[in-house]
Amino acid sequence: MRKSDLPLPEGLGQNRKKRPSRLDHALAHHFAVTTDFTALSEDAARLNREAVRAMAERRLPEAARLLEQALALDKTLLPAWMNLAAVKRMAGDLAGALAATDEAGKLDSQYFPAWMMRGALLEATGNPRQAAHSYQHALNRIRPEDAADPATGRAVARAQEFLATYRSEMEAFFLDGIGPVPATGHSAPARRMNGFVDHLLGRRKIYHSNPGSLYYPGLPSIEIHDREDFPFLPELEAATPEIQRELATVLADDNAGIEPYAQFEDARTAQRWHQLNYSLNWSAYHLANRGERIAAHREKCPFTAALLDRMPQPSLAQRSPAALFSILKPKTHIPPHCGVANFRLICHLPLILPEACRLRVGNVIQHWKMGEAFVFDDSIEHEAWNDSDHLRVVLIFDIWHPALSDEEKAFLSHAVTFVDRFNEMK
Hints:
Layout: H1 23-34, H2 42-56, H3 60-73, H4 78-90, H5 94-107, H6 112-124, H7 128-141, H8 144-147, H9 150-178, H10 188-200, H11 233-238, H12 240-252, E1 259-260, H13 267-272, E2 282-289, E3 292-293, H14 295-300, H15 302-309, E4 323-328, E5 332-337, E6 344-352, E7 357-361, E8 364-366, E9 374-376, E10 382-386, E11 392-400, H16 406-425
Antiparallel strand pairs: 1-2, 2-3, 2-4, 4-11, 5-10, 6-9, 6-11, 7-8, 7-10
Helix pairs in contact: 1-4, 1-6, 1-9, 2-3, 2-4, 3-4, 4-5, 5-6, 6-7, 6-9, 7-9
């Protein structure tokens, strides 16, 4: 009898259309064989290896006994818990198998094989909601190199298939019951209601503010903010032609003052940005940088400089204001990253805009439109593409988060200055 032909206990899984997958067995065997045991109890590791051989020969009671002995010696032996789950599954003890995956999960909540096997077991016992939850946890934690293994690849495909079917059925039932979302357009209520439905149905991943170093609590995580919160946008947009004229003088000056945007010395950061670090593929002409207004550049762009002086930019020593012409060469991708603080936002005004340019902020794909500015939270993961054959240039500058009071702005300016001052002494 093949593993996949093992009968389910009476009353379990009889309402499911598909028989349970045998991939949980393969996953357990694969990870037991390939795990390095050098840091574990040698006796427990030996018993686990003997159990794997017994499993391969279908000596299930002996395998279970050996695994229980191994776990009595070392309860942290993660592969033994996974093997025990597989043995109990093969013997038809699905409750026991689930209990073993629970123990594996307690040892390492990021261990995706435990989540994958748990999904298969819950699917087999007729618990689709919990199975979907477990499968999603597994897929969120798996790495591309893990999926290259054939058994793992089949498990991933099965999990994806199950999730797609589950979500399709739930979406049809849900939308049939509630009808269309009441609010439409780009209003805040419409964004929130549609976002709730999309997250509920698994259409989009949940993103939160994840600033690199400066997190201010209580501020909402909004990818693209509502225009109504920024009364300066019409003035900024009306100035587009004059800003474009000043940009043209900058670009005509043989790239004088234009420098690579990414300039990282830290080895780890430099490696992550290796394709753009010190590269003019993504470059900047700074009008203000790290809190310093660049006098020579402002003299070349006096209209733009005066306009920026009227914007609600933060004042943080060695940090803000920041303003630049962001220049992205053709066929260039800015990889996913997060800004350093969530209490200030980023404003974009397109100035040179070929087709095939876009920005992703969290779940939102934003296509620039000439003459239209927008504000986004760069502490949420974002990335940008210029897939065209031409240069793309955007005016970028930072502004205070509109939810902050004047008292909070003053506090942040003072507090961040002293944090930076302390770090400079170390």
